[in-house]
Amino acid sequence: MATQICPSESLGLTEIFNTTLHPITIDTTLPYIILICIAFTFVTANCILAVFNFVTLVSRMNDYDLELKYAIFWNLSLFTSVSIVYLLMLIFLRAAIICQLLAEMMLAFAVYQFLNLLMIMHGGKAAMIHNITGTIVTLFPLCWCYWCKRRRVESRNLIVYNILIAQMVVVVPGVDFLGIVIYTENPSWYNYEEPFSPYSAYLYLNLFRVISFMAGNSSLTRMVQANWYYLKGTRLLTKYILLILVLNSVFIFRLLISFLGKISLIKCTATFPLIDIMNQIHAFSTILIMLIAGIIARLVYITFPGSRMLETHRVAVQTKDIIEKSVNVQYPKDVTSEEDPFVTPYGPN
């Protein structure tokens, strides 16, 4: 079998970002090409709607008080900052897994934001629709990962980063902005009977978030266990554990802040300054989670060469070639071979 070289124990975060990687490879299979086309179609439509919606909001600014204006511009700038951070992750991490992740997240996030912008422009039962949409989009990475696993597409690492990043990013800043605007214009839209109130829908949404995050933790744990022999006693193991603990701590804190902010808004017990502070904490924790998940992705990419294989329908052939070259088995010659004139089917001459 091929021998895996244990990574250097002195590998630090600086080296993680500075390590030279092989050129980016992109899956060219038909489903992936279709996915990219759909994603960019939604992103284009999303940009057009965003501009139109922004102009509409600016034209209605006189109807809002100063605190609400600040909240609106904060969330718009937040949407931009999250996009920039994600773009920086793509540029500096330069891992093939991030390229594939980009198209998938574009699709999930663009569809969600597309629906949000339509709701803002056309009104409607926004609180209910918003939470149902959030739940569906949160399920998207799980369904996509299940499809990848069924198709045997590099399931371990693809599932980990879809779950850890997708369900963090798809329900982002425009959420509270949407809730504040709709609540200000028509508070009665929040008065639903159980079990279909915004309160219950938000609980369901966070339940799916927690389930998906637990699945991501499970995948990370299995990955560390599978490579325990190479990680045991190294600093890399300590870094993995610390990053996973920090990631979980930030996620729990973010979930708590988001939960308290949403519930206080629904129960009409929060003022706009309090909501705005929660929005900021929610935003920065989201960006922090993305960066930590990106660091883990890069660490995995460098530590385990197997994680670089995205087109895993070729893995069987590649593995076979590696085994043959590394083991270099010498098969005995056939006793009937004509290369040996002293051997015949009937024994030596």
TrEMBL record:
It comes from the Eukaryota. Its main location: membrane. It is a multi-pass membrane protein. The keyword Repeat does not apply. SMART domains: Solute_trans_a. InterPro entries: Ostalpha/TMEM184C (IPR005178). The chain crosses the membrane at residues 32-52, 72-93, 105-122, 128-147, 159-182, 202-220, 240-261, 281-304. One of its GO terms (cellular component) is membrane. It is found in: Membrane. Keywords: Membrane, Transmembrane, Transmembrane helix. Pfam families: Solute_trans_a (PF03619). PANTHER family: ORGANIC SOLUTE TRANSPORTER-RELATED. This is Uncharacterized protein. It comes from Oopsacas minuta.
